[in-house]
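Morning F.,

Quick status update on the modeling queue. The single chain you submitted on Monday has been processed. Sequence for confirmation:
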Amino acid sequence: MAGYELTPEEIKLFLEEASEQVQIMEETLIALEEDPDNPGLIQEIFRAAHTLKGGSATAGFDNMARLTHAMESLLDQVRQGEREMSSEIADPLFEGVDLLRRCLAEIAQVGHAENIDVTPLIAALEEQIGAGAAPPAAPGRGAAATKEAPGATGAGEAAPAWDPTGGQGQQAWWETIDRPYGEAADAGWVPAQDPSPAAGVPVAVEVQIAPTALMSSVRAYQVLLVLQDYGEVLWSEPSRQAIESGTAEVRRVRATLRLKEPGAGGDPERLESLERALLEIPEIVSASVAKAVSADGEAGATRADASGAEAQTPQAPAPAAASAPVPAASPEGEGRQTREAATSARGGAGGSTASTASAASAASLGQTIRVDVTLLDNLMNLVGELVIDRTRLAQLAMVDMSADELKEELTGVSSSLSRITTDLQDTIMHARMMPVDTLFKKFPRLVRDLSRQLGKEVDFEMSGNETELDRSVIEQIGDPLIHLLRNAIDHGIEPAEERRQKGKSPRGKVRLHAYHQENHIYIQVSDDGRGLNAEKILRKAIERGLVRPDEASRLSRETIYEFIFAPGFSTAAEVSSVSGRGVGMDVVKRNLEKVNGSVTVVTEEGRGTTFTIKLPLTLVIVQALMVEIAQSVMAIPLSNVTEAVQVTSADIHYARGWEMIEIRGEMVPLLNPGAIWGSGWSVEPPPGKALPVVILRSGSSPLGLKVNRLLGEQEIVIKAMGPVIGNVPGISGASILGDGSVALIIDPAGLSKAVKQAEAAERTA
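Structure tokens below.
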């Protein structure tokens, strides 16, 4: 059977849907390692694999279909109680998840996954399934059914000659239910074949596809694939040929099916199983299954009920069957709830390693955001109001009125525009917000693989997953969180024996917590491991020339801990495959600085360490402190401003070749913009007068910036600097002000970096 040809838009939807199913499989596998006997979890992962297999076969991605079929067959042994969940089963399944992600990435790049070799892993899975117990034929393009019924059609064939309705439509079709086989055959409702139990009893199927489904033909094709898994499709409307052509929307599929197992047509459990399988297809709102005819000539056909209630004698249904109710405590529901609650990553010895695929997946997001239709409706309403105000302005230009009348009208329009643009801004910002769970849910696999690779036992806890952040911020924090988690497991958590000697539980704990406070989001990565050794860090800093020995004794512990973020800094005695090269923490700080974020560390030796990341809610529109420097208006994000003070020449001290001021007992470097941007940007205090100084903070290091004037606070829209201008130290972007002028946006992290580079050059001079 030829596969349904997807359009580029449908491929995007397939990739999104398939990625979700792969993520469900990974999360459920992790939860199953903690609770291997949970039938809900087993059913959950089996359902995800089955859905992915059907979707892949529908789209013609044979590699994925074959691989998921092998994974599904192994999972089915666990589901049927033939095997117990173990690392021997979990490890190849995890490898399958990684390989499926590679296939999806390949499809996104080149439109197919033919270059991905899945054969070795399929062989490993089949070896687990057991020699001599070969799985059923894998589905794929052209391999979903091995026997075509009389009248059944494939691509390019004529429409079926046999119509069970006799051309009279749906009501006549449903009247075929509960008829003796001979009578039905004489009427032309079913083929004139052997009605014996060995031949199987036909069943009637009707499936309703959601009106909002964007890939209705794909869903209809998936329905046919499920039916072919259960038996022989005798007739369908639309025909296979019509579905594969993809030329029309399909909202309902009707079919007559002969089940594979003898006598299965009278088995309520088999009918219910078929109905559940149909309802598991995305965007299927209802499915009705009933015995089409009675082989023994007796009345009383059995009808499946998705609610799992006792089978009943069917009544002729309405043309559009209602959506079947879902049981309150179905195995699928139990599995989903258990999987969401299970956040522990089981450690211990094992052959599985932390794969590049899992880390890359954790750090990346797709290019689409799901938006509620209600939000889009609100946007349309706001745009409609904007059109009204535009019309009002156009009319004002044509009407002859006095200045006072014109002023009054313009004031009204201005007030309306202000309200609309504020609402528009809030709505757009809300559309860009995503829960951090989008990123967090990818970390349990990373922790699981790392702990197994390092031979450590680690419990991983996550909280605050519902906390929302701007999408652009989430995209930047994936790598920093990966590095922090790697360091927590590799350097923080001790081996089990060492923990026992210290009186700790042999299982270490790593916690990832997000919360919202004021205008910022905070993410904490904490562990109960060794903690940081300040003396060891300080010795390494002196050795690398980051601080002079005579200055070391005056440094606070917070300042000492800042050295771990220096490029190439590491106190690890050995370089492991996970960390120890001194590049991870540098990446953490640099990526966070790109989004005006910061990171601080609190640690207690022998008790553990907590890294706290502070992030702005959004990078698009921010509150800024407007200042004047050398007759130019500049903006400083308020999230980086600690305070503003007035400084006289008497307040300035000199140390390490720099001007310094004392703020509440702390010595703060004082930066003149001219030292970074050239003499034309120098700021000098007027004779005998105080000079405004803005205290900036990037990380835990304060910096005082000289300015000519403080102009107040203002909301600004951040625009990136173009490639023509390039990177300017201490400048992160620009913004257009209300009067049309351009204000450069100061980057405190860039200024701090420039100061540290100058200090390092001074020390080595």
